[in-house]
Amino acid sequence: MSCAPRRARARVLACACVLWSCSAPSDRPVLPSRTAQPPSAIADAGAPGDIDAGAAGDAGVSSAEPEWPLEMVATLLPAERALDVRLDLALGWVPPPRGTDASAWGGVSGATLTFADDLPFATGRGFAQFVTVAGEGGQRTSWPARITVTDGRLSIAYRVALRHHEASPARGLDEVPHPTRGGWFLAGRAFVPRHIRLADGRALDVAGQLTIRAPSGWTIVGSPDREGDVFRASSFRGLADAVFALGDLRSTHVRVGEVDIAIVTSDFDEEVLDRMADLVRRILTEGQALLGPLPPSRLLVVHDRSAAGIDGGVVGRSIAVLTEHAPTGRAREDAAIVTVHELMHLWNRSEAWWINEGMTRYLEVLLSLRLDRADEAAAMAAWLPVVRRYEAEAEGQTIAASTGAWGYAAGAVAMFCADTHLRRTTQTTLLEVHRRARTQGVAPGGGNTVSADALLSALDAASADTGAYVRALVAQRGSIDVDACFARAGYALSRARRRARRMRGRDDRAWPFAWRDVNTARP
C-alpha cells in the first residue's frame, strides 16, 4: 500500500504507516522442518512474490538439503557505511517450471532482485540506487543480479550503501537505515529484497534465515524470530519487513497481559529507557482496558534520537520511535505521542487509509487524553488542531479517498462524527463497533486488520442510520459539517475563531474525549 511522508517537526505529527506484508503481532511463522516438502515457492507470471500452490509439483527434498532453503549473511562495515550481503539458496527447494518433469529442473540463468523501488528520493529513484553487485558500480532502478550456481546452491552477492537517510526518503524510519549514537538502526527493506524473479519469469519466496555480523562487542536485536545468532522468518519477505538495531544497546523488558515487550536504545541512558518502559506499560495497560486484550505476542520497541523532529513506524512485530527528547510522563507531549500512535496500530490496521491512519489518530488522541487524565479544556486543545488540519485541505477531496498526511486528520474527523452519532442515538460507541469489526474481514497475516467493509457492516449492525450516515460522510466531496458533530456532544464550534464553549445540557456520554467517561468499549 502507499504510505505518506511522516517526518514531523515541532508539534506537527504525522505518524507511521503499516507494512502489510509483515507478520501481525500475534503471528508465529510456520517454519519448515528438515524433512518437509519444498514450499510452493514459484509463481508463473504472477505478481511479485505471489505463491502458486500448484507450482511445486511432486518434487521432493533430499535429506541432504538444509532446513532453511534461503540463507543470508549481512556484514556491517561502519567505517565504510556499507553492508555486504550474500544470499544463498538451496536449489533443491526450487521446483521446476510449470509443465516440466521434476527431474528436469534445469538451471537458472539469471534473476532480478526487487527492493523498495517504489520509494522516490530527492537524489535518485528507488532503493536500488544504493545496491550494487559485489565488485561493480552504477545505479539501477531495476536490479538484475548476476548469479553463480555451485554445489546445488544459487549465490548472489551485493553491497548496500547505507545512505538512504541522506536522500530525503518519502517514507520514514521504518523504511531506511539510520546511524545512532551507538550503532545503526536497519530497516530490513534496506538490504533484504522484497522478492526475487528468476529469468524465466517465476517469482520466488521461501523460508529464510539471516545472520548479521557487526563489530566485536556490538549487540544485535531484531523483530523476527531468533534462534542463536540468526533471525528467521517463513519467507525472505518476512525478513525484509522487519527492523534490526545494532550497536551499544541498552534494553529492558516489560510484560502487559500476554504481550512481552523488549525495549532497546543506543542513544539514551538507563533512566530514559525506564521512562519509555513505563510509558509503554501504561499505554498497553490502558489500551487493553479500553480496546480489549491483545493476543499472546512478542514486541520490539526501538527508541533512538532524531534531531530532525519525531518519527515512528510499525513493521511487523516492531515499533520504531525516533525523537530528540525522552518521555517525561505526559502522553500528550511530542516525545510520547508518537509512541501512543504506533502502539494503537496494534489494535487498528486497514487497507483503507482513512481507517488505518484516521482511526489510529482518533485512538491516539482519545487514549493520550485518558492517560493524562485531561480535563475538558485540554481535550478540546488536543482535538481542535486535528479539525483545523482536516478543514484546511478538505476542498475537492473525499475522506474515503484520502491519502498522505491529510488522511490522518480526515479519517479521525470521520471517526469523531461516527462516534458522536452512535453515542447520541444508541447505547454503544465506536470503540465497541470497531472491536466487533476486528473479528471480520481479516486479511492474511493481518491480525487486527479492519477492512472498510467490515467496519461499515459493524456500524450497520449497531445502527442502520449511523451506517448510512458514515457512508455519506466519507463519500462527500469537500468539507463535512463538523459543527453538527460537535453539536451532538452539546458543543458549539465557532468557525471564525475556532474556539469552543460549553453549552447548557451538554451530554457527557456523547463527548468521547472525557477520560472519566465510563461509556467506552466494554469487555
Annotate the secondary structure layout:
Blueprint: E1 42-44, E2 70-77, E3 82-90, E4 111-114, E5 120-121, E6 124-125, E7 131-133, E8 143-145, E9 148-150, E10 153-161, E11 178-180, E12 183-187, E13 195-198, E14 202-204, E15 208-213, E16 219-222, E17 225-227, E18 230-233, H1 236-240, E19 243-247, E20 250-256, E21 259-265, H2 270-291, E22 297-304, E23 310-315, E24 318-323, H3 334-344, H4 353-356, H5 358-371, H6 376-392, H7 404-425, H8 430-437, H9 452-462, H10 464-475, H11 482-488, E25 491-493, E26 500-502
Parallel strand pairs: 2-15, 21-22, 22-24
Antiparallel strand pairs: 1-14, 2-3, 3-10, 4-8, 4-13, 5-6, 7-10, 9-10, 11-12, 12-19, 13-14, 15-18, 16-19, 17-18, 20-21, 23-24, 25-26
Keywords:
alpha+beta, 25% helix, 5-stranded antiparallel β-sheet, globular, 11 helices, disordered C terminus, 8-stranded mixed β-sheet, 523 residues
Question: Could you please describe the fold and organization of this structure?
Answer:
The structure is a single chain. With 523 residues, the protein is α+β, with helices and mostly antiparallel strands. Helices cover 25% and strands 24% of the residues. It contains 11 helices and 26 strands. It has helices at 236-240, 270-291, 334-344, 353-356, 358-371, 376-392, 404-425, 430-437, 452-462, 464-475, 482-488; strands at residues 42-44, 70-77, 82-90, 111-114, 120-121, 124-125, 131-133, 143-145, 148-150, 153-161, 178-180, 183-187, 195-198, 202-204, 208-213, 219-222, 225-227, 230-233, 243-247, 250-256, 259-265, 297-304, 310-315, 318-323, 491-493, 500-502. The strands form 6 sheets. Strands 2, 3, 7, 9, 10, 15, 17 and 18 form an 8-stranded mixed β-sheet that branches. Helix 2 (270-291) crosses helix 3. The longest helix is centred in the middle third of the chain and has 22 residues, at 270-291. Mean pLDDT is 77; it is low at 1-65, 441-446, 495-505 and 517-523.
